[in-house]
Amino acid sequence: VNQVANLTLVSSACDMVSTAYASTKESHPYITSVCDAAEKGVKSVTKATASCVQPVLTTLEPHVAAASEYASKGLDKLGEKLPLLQKPVDQIISDTKELVSSRVADAKDVMSS
After folding, report:
1. Structural domain of residue 19, as residue ranges?
2. Fewer beta carbons under 10 A from the terminal one: N or C of the chain?
3. What is the pTM assigned to this prediction?
């Protein structure tokens, strides 16, 4: 999970969502109260779940470690195959706009000739 969260694409997307969430909460008082209630609910459920799941995780720790290592190797390979994962969302959007613009310009040139 940490390795996925540390991918540039994922972390920049999370930052964008977090900024939008904070901005929305700031701008709309009614939404603020709903969001605050939802946050408290999530925190309560997380605490309750953590205490219940911890004994199971302790028992399954060797299996979780093996699965984690396997997943980590898979993510490394995925990162090699998809360099896009190492780019921030802003850059991906900019590159996509540039590519589309270039293709549209090429299409216009073909059509006009």
Report:
1. 1-81
2. C
3. 0.64
